[in-house]
Automatic annotation (TrEMBL):
It holds the Pfam family ABC_tran. SMART domains: AAA (SM00382). The keyword Nucleotide-binding applies. This is ABC transporter ATP-binding protein. It comes from the Bacteria. It is found in: Cell membrane. PROSITE patterns: ABC_TRANSPORTER_1 (PS00211), ABC_TRANSPORTER_2 (PS50893). SUPFAM superfamilies: P-loop containing nucleoside triphosphate hydrolases (SSF52540). InterPro entries: AAA+_ATPase (IPR003593), ABC_transporter-like_ATP-bd (IPR003439), ABC_transporter-like_CS (IPR017871), ABC_transporter_ATP-binding (IPR050763), P-loop_NTPase (IPR027417). Keywords: Antibiotic resistance, ATP-binding, Nucleotide-binding, Transport.
């Protein structure tokens, strides 16, 4: 089941931010990426989603020029990724590492700016965009996980990159920290920066990405907006209380694609949930009906049903 609704870079809009063409990456007998072709236009905010071992980090590493494809071509703003990184077109926020606890937030950004040869104004601006102005004097070691990630974000902003790549940036953060982190990223992206992030928080992809690319076993299995991907995973669910029901009998109801029984509760998945609800109410003693759309997590599970469970 594959959806490819995201348009290719439109003619006349210039070079694609990212262009992967038939990319394969093998590690010995393991094929981590198995023929990915993907075009990302400047200004898109794209989530890479997939179960463990799907090939997300391997793809990110190739985009950053940290490894080379075994086959196929990777271009970032029309250049080999390592060149794009060297030119400051791309920077990354990774999950861990790279921070010294005994420096303050501001000192950390200033030192990084010196390495990049950036002026003082760039430091002030990066701190502001990452929402760190008020805690510039705080020691890094005293910062929360979310604040440390925003510090990595501020450092990544120093070259004023066209493309920002985030590999599972909010792992281990609490809800408030994640929210603050994504607000900062989102505000910044609204100014036109291209953002690609790998995450296993499905609600983050739903809330913050313009486009969701699902990867499974090194291949793209769905590509579209979160709404399109949810629609692709088909229909809605009717939940009802119906003691004694069997899955076989429920599956025979018109419009039901899939039936589950958990105790006295039944879950009927299908496209025409009105028809299913009508049947339940008129032909069975079912009560407490509830009809819900699938969320991205359901879509993810449906699309990767024969895979390992996502984290
Ligand atoms: N250096 C390596 N040597 C051998 N196998 C590797 C190497 N790097 C990745 N792999 C394998 O390639 C596959 C894809 O791994 P990758 O880390 O890209 O997945 P992922 O989607 O990022 O998963 P996760 O969500 O767990 O980070 C896995 O089977 C992994 O074990």
């Amino acid at each position: 089941m594959t959806l490819t609704t995201a348009p290719e870079a439109a003619p006349g809009t210039g070079t694609a931010a990212v262009d992967l063409d038939g990319v394969v990456k093998r590690f010995g007998a393991v094929t981590a990426v198995d023929g990915i072709s993907l075009t990302i236009r400047p200004g898109e905010v794209v989530a890479l989603l997939g179960p463990n071992g799907a090939g997300k980090t391997t793809t990110v590493d190739m985009l950053l020029g940290l490894s080379q494809p075994s086959q196929g071509r990777v271009a970032v703003y029309g250049k080999p990724p390592a060149d794009a990184v060297a030119l400051g077109l791309v920077s990354a926020v990774m999950q861990t590492g790279g921070l010294l606890k005994d420096y303050t937030v501001e000192e950390t950004v200033r030192l990084t700016a010196v390495l990049f040869g950036k002026p003082r104004t760039a430091v002030t601006e990066a701190l502001r965009r990452a929402g760190l102005t008020d805690i510039g004097k705080r020691l890094v070691g005293k910062c929360s996980g979310g604040q440390q990630q925003r510090l990595r974000f501020a450092m990544a902003l120093l070259p004023d990159p066209e493309l920002l790549i985030l590999d599972e940036p909010t792992t281990g953060m609490d809800v408030a920290g994640r929210h603050e982190f994504w607000s900062a990223i989102r505000d910044d992206a609204a100014r036109g920066r291209t953002v690609i992030f790998a995450t296993h928080y499905l609600e983050e992809a739903d809330a913050y990405a313009d486009r969701v690319v699902f990867v499974r076993r090194g291949r793209i299995v769905a590509d579209g907006t979160a709404a399109e991907v949810k629609a692709l995973a088909a229909g809605r669910t009717v939940r009802a209380t119906l003691p004694g029901a069997t899955e076989a009998a429920l599956a025979a109801i018109g419009g039901v694609d899939r039936a589950e029984v958990r105790g006295d509760t039944v879950y009927l998945h299908g496209n025409d949930t009105d028809e299913i609800a009508r049947h339940l109410l008129t032909r069975t003693p079912a009560k407490d009906l509830e009809i819900t759309s699938r969320n991205l997590e359901d879509a993810f599970l449906a699309l990767t049903a024969d895979e390992e469970t996502p984290r």
